[in-house]
């Protein structure tokens, strides 16, 4: 039996999906401005999900309008990302540092620095949210809910559009995976952190695969949940595999960024005649954690590239 909305016009279904994402952004903005626990992360997730839905299902809407709104959402996401990344780094200093027996003093120094940077990043977000660019973005979101700009696929069946677009998302994962040496990524050592040019190239390829996994995961999520369910269990499985790719590489990225932070502090401590050992210990522990995060990645990639919606 086909899902309830598979035969509905794509324009109607995806307008409802967009409106729901806009509602979540509106709901999550006040707690994020107040810097409530996990609120910045929740708002950033809502912004990313809408941006991803617009990318995956672009033909349902006017191409130029999609491009413009995605640009605005990317700008907001970047501002939120500064604060969120610092929150993650602070939590990782505590968890990885404690597990690796890094001294309390060394962890406290790192946490204090990250707290100062986070306060500044959140203040920049608050300023942005009260500025002209955010007002323009809000007005654009309201307009999209009231008068969605229709595209060439708006009158086609939603189920057919969803299957075709998710197929493209799976292909994107396959291309990104083929362009990344997973073994080299898993074998990055603390010493490799000092060759930033080579590391940056490797991480850029990993980032493309992570984004492709996220695009598939969030694209599938949008069309396999009520009240706009147009695809069933096969699409859910693809979304889960995409999520596994995204999560694995996201954890890997966070761990390596922690290792880089610790490595920089070790060099700074040595330059000032201080003991770099606690920071070296943290860098090595974070690098091991990064490698562990990739354990299930090959299977997730294989699962995706062997299936299609």
UniProtKB/TrEMBL annotation:
SMART domains: CHAD. It comes from the Bacteria. Residues 7-306 form the CHAD domain. This is CHAD domain-containing protein. The lineage of its organism: Bacteria, Bacillati, Actinomycetota, Actinomycetes, Micrococcales.
């Amino acid at each position: 039996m086909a899902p309830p909305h598979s035969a509905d016009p794509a324009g109607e279904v995806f307008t409802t999906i967009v409106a729901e994402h806009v509602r979540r952004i509106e709901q999550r903005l006040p707690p994020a401005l107040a810097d409530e626990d996990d609120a910045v992360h929740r708002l950033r997730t809502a912004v990313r999900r809408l941006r991803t839905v617009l990318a995956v299902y672009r033909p349902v809407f006017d191409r130029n309008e999609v491009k413009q709104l995605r640009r605005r959402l990317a700008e907001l996401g970047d501002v939120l990302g500064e604060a969120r990344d610092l929150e993650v780094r602070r939590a990782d200093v505590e968890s990885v540092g404690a597990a690796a027996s890094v001294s309390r003093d060394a962890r406290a120094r790192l946490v204090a620095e990250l707290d100062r940077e986070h306060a500044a990043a959140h203040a920049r977000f608050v300023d942005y949210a009260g500025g002209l660019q955010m007002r323009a973005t809000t007005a654009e979101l309201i307009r999209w809910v009231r008068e969605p700009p229709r595209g060439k696929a708006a009158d086609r069946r939603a189920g057919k559009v969803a299957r075709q677009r998710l197929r493209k998302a799976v292909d994107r994962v396959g291309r990104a995976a083929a362009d990344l040496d997973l073994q080299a990524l898993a074998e990055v050592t603390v010493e490799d952190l000092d060759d930033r040019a080579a590391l940056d190239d490797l991480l850029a390829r990993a980032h493309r695969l992570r984004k492709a996994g996220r695009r598939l995961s969030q694209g599938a999520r949008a069309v396999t949940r009520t009240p706009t369910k147009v695809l069933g269990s096969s699409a859910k499985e693809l979304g889960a595999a995409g999520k596994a790719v995204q999560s694995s590489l996201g954890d890997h990225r966070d761990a390596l960024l922690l290792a880089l932070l610790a490595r920089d502090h070790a060099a700074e401590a040595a330059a000032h005649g201080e003991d770099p050992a606690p920071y070296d210990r943290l860098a090595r522990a974070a690098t091991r954690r990064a490698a562990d995060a990739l354990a299930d990645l090959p299977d997730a990639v294989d699962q995706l590239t062997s299936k299609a919606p």
